[in-house]
């Protein structure tokens, strides 16, 4: 459920129109004790035989493995304290199935999503607006990091609550850098290119043994490093041809061409799985990696002896005012349109996103919380890398992809053309023109 580099794209293959609505209700309690409110749909139902019938909620989430286990612990904690509302979790990372279930009229009661999908889904009616619940229970939205909360809102409505915030930084293998004569990480983009060249190990026939950094770098992060933007709100124009976007893709293209698609494909085919000891950064196949706040938790699990460091994303030396650049994204919880027990769903969702539960979950999986009141929780003291990422998350040069109804289509097309540009199938200008021609008609 995290954004690993630019693997964040969900293609919406079904368009629909469902009347958006929202039922009221919820508890006025603010404590973290997992007890449902009196006014929520939490009262036990009584059958004709006089027996008590429990409300059963289905909860689809995208986390797997140890991360899913951490979430299930919280679900068990809720269920123990709320015998009248029992939540059944299901690890379901195929988000197209969520959409199919919603449009088919048989959705889960609560689900997780990525923040950049909230506006497209919410605007089309797949997510219930939560504002009536938020107002009735007095949930303090000012406690949320503004850039994180922004991913869940559109045209005055809040469609989801962000549970975790994701930021990318530069990881580097201290031993490999020292062997190459570097006493620290690159600070500027010029230095980054030099590091990549010196840290990469290439055989005479072009075969790669090690890469300084995978050249297909995150377009969004480096677009912001160059001061670029993807959308002009004032003119309602998509801007894939913005100079900053072009500079970011040109950076990757220049590094890609040094090694060639054939050698890079051959090299990548032999790389290990991301969540394993064979992760290319853990195994020394990459000397550096641009990754998220969750990676130190994986390193602790799969490569505890790795001698690594964490540094800011290199900035454009021509614009020192853009130091500490990057992209902010989120993971969210929402109530699908058509959920059978929306009041009970809200009671559970509200509890899950309270500071105590948020801290317990995000600390377990190495993510950043989205509520500022959770930042000082001592549970994070032993979370590797947390302080580095928390400090970096305060940078004014972090941005999120524009929250628009066509964000998914935009990111999908940009990703496809980015790959085509890297592989020389289209020129930079041709590829970005295709993006603009494809997406601009969707703006209206």
Automatic annotation (TrEMBL):
InterPro entries per the UniProt record, alphabetical: Bact_solute-bd_prot1, SBP
UniProt keyword annotation of Signal present: yes
UniProt keyword Signal, yes or no: yes
Family matches, as SUPFAM superfamilies: Periplasmic binding protein-like II (SSF53850)
Record-linked PROSITE patterns: PROKAR_LIPOPROTEIN
Signal sequence, renumbered to the chain: 1-23
Name by which UniProt lists this protein: ABC transporter substrate-binding protein
Alphabetic keyword roster: Signal
Bias kind Basic and acidic residues: ranges: 40-49
Domain of life, per lineage: Bacteria
Pfam families in the cross-refs: SBP_bac_1
